[in-house]
Amino acid sequence: MKSDSIVIIPTYNEKENIEKIIRAVFSLEKCFHILVIDDGSPDGTATIVKGLMAEEFADRLFLLERSGKLGLGTAYIMGFKWALEHDYDYIFEMDADFSHDPNDLPRLYSACAPKKDNDEASEGGYDLAIGSRYVSGVNVVNWPIGRVLMSYFASKYVRFVTGFKVHDTTAGFKCYRRRVLETIELDKIRFKGYAFQIEMKFTAYKIGFKIKEVPVIFVNRREGTSKMSGGIFGEAFFGVMRLRWDGWTRKYPSLPSTPHL
Asked: SS3 breakdown of the chain: % helix, strand, coil, rounded to 5?
């Protein structure tokens, strides 16, 4: 079953969620493919994915296995390269734990797909669509208040330091048109943790790509264990200063003259 869209889902110990999230994505009216990138989960996450590939979804579910916890950023970079090699036009980032609602995938897709002819109200044509928790208030459910405040003010901090006008700079629910990932020099992306999400958005912004924030509701995971840590936030805090310096001194790639459709 062919599709122009691939959803990349990094995993580590997500056995409680992985089959449910795969089936939820595949139940959507629009056809999406899924690439799971598993970092050697000892709980058997990859084994569950292999079973689904063999029994039901051989033509739309794919798996890359890594030897251990190598970082969120490196997982996505591997997935981006794989997606480009396999000719997908729309590449998504999504968590496995249902904090990102699969039903929002078509909304992100619509923001990036070409605008419909003779429809001025159509929202399409953006290069990067961000599932944003903060573009229309604070849309977070079941997070401890300390975590909400940390995330919200982290995005405020990024906006203040960099001048980058996106409201949810740390969001991990996104859709890229392939030309964005073809243009960004993926091997030059430095950060592996929380700051990876900021660096990718900031780089796309500095190149000149059109960015759209699509309001979503973020729901804290119901099953499994969060992978967030203080070290991840530390990387983001100091990484933002480095990005601001890069914004002054680095020569970014040029914006492609014509879209790749």
From this structure: 40, 15, 45
pLDDT in tens, 189-237: 988 777 889 899 999 999 999 999 999 998 875 555 555 555 555 666 6
Burial class (CB in 10 A: 0-12, 13-18, 19+), 145: exposed
Please report how the helices 230-249 and 145-162 are oriented relative to each other, as an axis angle in degrees rounded to 10.
10
| CA dist 227 → 45, 129, 236 (Å) | 15, 24, 15
Element (H, E) at 80: helix 72-85
- Average pLDDT on 31-59 reads 96
- pTM for the model stands at 0.87
| Helix/strand/coil for 260 | coil
For residue 113, what are the contacts with CB-CB under 8 A and spacing of at least 6? 90, 124, 125
**Cα-Cα end-to-end distance for the chain:** 19
Query: Closest by alpha carbon to 176, among 128, 225, 124?
Result: 128
